[in-house]
Amino acid sequence: MTKPRPPLSKELQLRVFRRDKWVCRWCNRPVIFAPVMRLIESKVRNAGRVEPLSYYHTHWTRDGAPLLDELGAVIDHIEAHSTGGSSEEPNLATACCRCNVRKSAASMHEWAKRPQRKPIKGKYGEPQHWDGLSALFVVLAKRDRSGLTASEKDWLRVLAGATADAR
Fold first, then answer.
1. Contact yes or no for 93/20 (Cβ under 8 A)
2. pLDDT per position as a tens digit, 128-166
3. What are the residues whose beta carbons fall under 8 Å from the beta carbon of 156, sequence distance 6 or more?
4. How many Cβ atoms are within 10 Å of 105's Cβ, its own excluded?
5. Residues 27, 119 contacting (CB under 8 angstroms)
6. Distance between CA 88 and CA 111 in Å, rounded?
7. Which of 155, 126, 129 is CA-nearest to residue 141?
């Protein structure tokens, strides 16, 4: 039985996302910061939309949040924690939800043997300034902090602080 993995700090996750330019290490697809999708759905509903929306679901289900099911940004352990991989930054990679699920705890050797998703290539080159919509999250979260979860408040603190540091 493996010991429970301690949670990764939001600061560490942000460093990995930024280092990898918010692009999945395995398929080269740009990924999306999930908390922003919940805020977008909330804003649309508050604007009077009554029809069902599929922007956000707590479990990122395909029917409830197809964009997150495919492209939600996650942190993947290159060498799985369950097989002894560390939670240090060099062993962490940005992944899309789909690749993270497909890779599971496979070693890099096992992963390389599996059929891979075809890596995508940008028609006009790779994204240079993609941020996974994290800046939009900061804007929306600052407009109405009352509806934020504790985790979203932590993300706002980290992202707003990181933005200030970048200036």
1. yes
2. 899 999 999 999 999 989 999 999 999 999 999 866 555
3. 137, 138, 141, 142, 145, 148
4. 14
5. yes
6. 20
7. 155
Establish how many alpha carbons lie within 13 A of residue 163's alpha carbon, considering only the half-sphere containing its beta carbon.
13
CA distance 40 to 42: 5
Q: Which stretches does DSSP call E strand in the chain?
A: 73-77, 92-96
Contact 30, 130 (CB under 8 A): yes
Residue written as tokens 């992202």?
159
Tens of pLDDT, residue by residue over 37-79, are 999 999 999 999 888 899 999 999 999 999 999 999 999 999 9
Taking residue 144's Cβ as centre, other Cβ atoms within 10 Å add up to 12
Counting every residue written for the chain, the total comes to 167
Q: Residues 25, 111: contact at Cβ < 8 Å?
A: no
